[in-house]
Specification:
Largest sheet: 8 strands, mixed
CATH topology of one domain: D-Amino Acid Oxidase, Chain A, domain 2
Shape: globular
Structural class: alpha/beta
Strand content: 15-25%
Distance between the termini: 55 Å
Number of strands: 19
Order of helices and strands: HEHEEHEHEHEEHEEEEEHEEEEHEEEHH
Radius of gyration: 22 Å
Strand order of the largest sheet: 5-6-4-14-15-16-13-17
CATH class of one domain: Alpha Beta
Helix content: 25-40%
CATH superfamily of one domain: D-Amino Acid Oxidase, subunit A, domain 2
């Protein structure tokens, strides 16, 4: 302990001059085997799996800002698999299995806490939906059970006692494998692991357009010049449609603000994630004691990383209607991310209409929880040209075929 304190003091006084860098700051090369646009969780995970699983050695991850500084840093870090549609359930359930091993895989503590999630059911329609989900999730081996109101109150002592309110708690669902993780640790862990295998992570290098020759991609135009590559993967949020337009096609997505806020630190009082689906409100308690609270997406398109006060007001009202003991808790800070939503609230992980271009966009509120499995699936697509078996329902072609997959179980749903 004495050595650790002296080491910390010495490095602090020297400005950390002797600390090794977790990843390099490499110069941009004129050509790569693959270029990934976006150094968030999905882009870094894709680069890691391209290098580890598919043997590509010359990979660049380009970002207009800093590593992990986009929506990876602007979310409520909820990880779950209790979705509505069976393909989504299987996809996110595979993701949870990867989350369970991620710290060991990356040799980096991502602080994954598998604390479970309780959904409080307040309408008979939602109760029927939860019963259907229970049957479907059991078929694929995902733990999920229905609780009585009394059982829910045993797990949530702060839940208001039964009273004649407009929407009483009829039941609850319990998803024990749900959890949370530290968002920046996830980005840093993937970055360090990818860098160790030779991936170039180039920050402050905006990709301005995708260049094509005929029906095939040949590279990207960046703020630092042209970079040639036969493979480009788009892992961007908020401006995916704009970047796709430079390659000559449109995406069926719109960009909206999705905001969250945290309270002042409190003593430990909540060891699960609580979701109130009737009002699209959810919250959990962080390791620092803050309540991390999220609501639905704002009802208007915008690129601004901020949201309307009305969403905060609705989320707080929903939370206090069931947890009135929290009414004197003060809000500490608020933020928002600009998320891309597909028309069916299901993301796109698919080949683009331009050969050599792969898409991982439109994740809405499901992007963070899908980072490990999304990286595996996109790396498979980039390396082989074929969709991953677990991601076949995410193809862009579903819109042309008239087969959208309406996923109303996303926190950002607007259906």
């Amino acid at each position: 302990m004495r050595y650790s304190i002296l080491s910390l003091a010495r490095n602090a006084l020297s400005g950390h001059a002797h600390w090794p860098r977790a990843w390099r700051d490499p110069p941009l090369q004129p050509a790569y085997d693959a270029v990934i646009v976006g150094a968030g969780g999905h882009g870094l995970a894709t680069a890691y799996h391209l290098a580890r699983d598919h043997g590509l050695s010359r990979i660049a991850v380009l970002d207009k800002g800093w590593l992990g500084g986009g929506n990876t840093a602007r979310n409520t870090v909820t990880i779950r698999a209790n979705y509505l549609r069976e393909p989504s359930m299987r996809f996110y359930a595979a993701g949870i299995r990867l989350w369970e091993e991620l710290s060991r895989t990356l040799n980096y503590n991502v602080m994954f806490s598998q604390r479970g999630q309780i959904d409080l059911i307040q309408t008979w329609a939602k109760l029927r939906d939860v019963k259907r989900r229970q049957a479907a999730l059991r078929l694929i081996g995902v733990p999920f059970e229905i609780l009585t109101p009394a059982q829910a109150r045993e797990r949530l002592p702060l839940l208001a006692p039964e009273a004649p309110v407009r929407l009483p708690v009829l039941a609850a669902s319990w998803h024990p494998t749900a959890g949370v993780a530290r968002h920046d640790a996830v980005a840093w862990g993937y970055a360090r692991a990818a860098d160790a295998m030779g991936v170039d992570i180039v920050q402050n290098c905006e990709v301005r357009s995708i260049r094509r020759e005929g029906d095939r991609v040949i590279g990207v135009e960046t703020a630092r010049g042209f970079v040639a590559t036969p493979r480009v993967a788009m892992c961007v949020s908020a401006h995916a449609g704009d970047l796709a337009a430079t390659a000559g096609f449109r995406l069926p997505i719109e960009t909206v603000p999705l905001q969250a806020f945290v309270s002042e630190p409190l003593k430990p009082m909540l060891d699960v994630i609580v979701n109130i689906p009737q009002f699209a409100t959810y919250f959990s308690q962080s390791d620092k004691g803050e309540l991390v609270i999220g609501g639905g997406a704002d009802a208007y398109p915008s690129y601004a990383a901020r949201g309307s006060f009305a969403v905060i007001e609705e989320a707080v009202a929903a939370m206090l209607s069931l947890f009135p003991a929290l009414k004197r808790v003060r809000m500490l800070r608020q933020w928002a991310g600009s998320i891309d939503l597909c028309h069916d609230i299901t993301p796109i992980l698919s080949p683009a209409p331009v050969a050599g271009l792969s898409l991982s966009v439109g994740w809405g509120s499901g992007g963070f929880k899908a980072i490990p499995i999304g990286g595996v699936a996109l790396a498979h697509l980039v390396a082989t040209g074929a969709p991953h078996p677990l991601a076949e329902h995410l193809l862009l072609s579903r819109f042309a075929k008239g087969r959208p997959l309406f996923e109303t179980a996303g926190a950002s749903n607007r259906l």
